[in-house]
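Progress report, Aim 2. The chain analyzed during this reporting quarter is listed below.
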Amino acid sequence: MAEGLDGREFGKSDFVLLDEVTIDSFMQNLKLRFQKGKIYTYVGELVVSVNPYRTMDI
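Predicted structure tokens for the chain:
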């Protein structure tokens, strides 16, 4: 897994992997991933995308 064994460096890539499912843990994980440039996060089969407010090379 590229994000590390437990997701500490970039947060969990899928919210279903959170140890505690609360609004606070959801937002903390989303904020950490955004700060690390990871704008896409799964919730099972769905994808949450955060606007990076910058030009993307896609």
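Residues 15-49 form one domain. The longest strand covers residues 40-43. These observations will guide the mutagenesis work planned for the next reporting period.
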